[in-house]
Description:
By secondary structure, this protein is α/β, with parallel strands linked by helices. The protein is built from 17 helices and 14 strands. The chain has helices at residues 2-22, 24-27, 44-63, 83-96, 106-111, 113-119, 131-135, 146-159, 176-179, 182-190, 210-218, 230-243, 267-273, 294-305, 310-314, 316-337, 344-352; strands spanning 30-37, 71-78, 100-103, 123-125, 139-143, 166-172, 195-202, 223-227, 257-260, 281-284, 377-379, 381-388, 391-394, 399-400. Helix 13 (267-273) links the parallel strand 9 and strand 10. Helix 8 (146-159) packs across helix 10 (182-190), helix 12 packs across helix 13 (267-273) and helix 16 crosses helix 17. The longest helix is centred in the last third of the chain and has 22 residues, at 316-337. It starts with a helix and ends with a strand.
Amino acid sequence: MKNKKTMFISILLAFLLILAFSSPSMAGETYKIGFSGAITGTTSDVGVPYSKAIEDYCRYVNDDKLLGDDKLECLIRDDGYETEKTKRNFEDFMDEGIVFYLNYSTGSSLAMGKDFDEEKIPTITASYHAGNLAVSNYAFLPIVSYTSQAIALAEYLVANHKGDTAQVAMFIHPSAFGRAPVEDLQKAIAGGLKMDIVEVVEHGKDLDNTAMLQRWMNKKVQYVICQTVQPPVATMLKSAQGLGVIAGTYGEAGKLTFLGLHYAGGPDLVALAGSAAEGFFWTTSYKLMTEGGAGTDAQHALAKRYGRDEATANSQNYTNGVQVIQIAVETMIRAKAKGKKITRQALYEEMLAMNGYNAYYPLTTVGPVTYSKTDRQGVDMLQLYRCQNGVFRPVGLPFAFTAK
């Protein structure tokens, strides 16, 4: 009888061990995040470091068990900056059961706003167009909008301009992304901002902008605000350098002072334009690797850990990609701490609660990430930078700015 009892206990223990190793609940859950972006094609210079950052941070979350026994699976797809491909990727992601979505282009974000609402899935876009928030209650911007950035630059431009009304040209991407802040900036001018927009140019693929620059000089333009990605800006700056029309000091008479929004400047621009980027003014909410500190040290370590080169590690768009997935992971950590099951709705609730004492400090930005039901722009702080001796350096301290 004793032998039978011992045998029964041994079999029971073996069964329990098998159950422990095979049970999904005991092994931890897997949560999926989807990202669709331009890894090839137009704006891939942004999409490549952005996607690498998402991949690296996802690996880091699992390797360092930020979610405990649970795992993160990041589904990364190329869409070539084509809205139809983005839509197909999104549908595939939904079939895979994602709980959080990272979108890329302005055009696709605007086109898919109803889809985000229908699926009730929290979505962070790489596009900072304020219009994204109007078409979906589930869309969030990682930092302040293009409008906020453009008006902040324009206010700095006007405040530091000497002489009559500042004459300004805008150099923009030929897409919804490029056009996003133009109308809002024109409204600010109509409301009393003392500057004139002489011309708005949607650039093509020209390798020589000489004729355009000469036209601006003939029209007495002194400032150029850029809302596009780095390659066309670099091409324009090289042409301007060849003509000798880049201002040596801010607002220099008879020369052009260049300024840009997030995707138009930064370290990536210096790599493309070289010395022609000298003096370029640029605004963003992200910290730069050249400034040092806990956040930048952590980014360097992340890039090195997963074999990225220095250009990628120093790219502001790598920082950008790290930040968006940081936010997504933080919602999971907060939901788990409250004993919530990780669902789209639970993560959406955590996004809306990310304010006040619950603000999130990711160390990749110059201010905290905050969201609420009435404010779905993330970091409300901006930093103005200027390229000096080949490096973008801060101009003054970060400042709060949210254009409404």
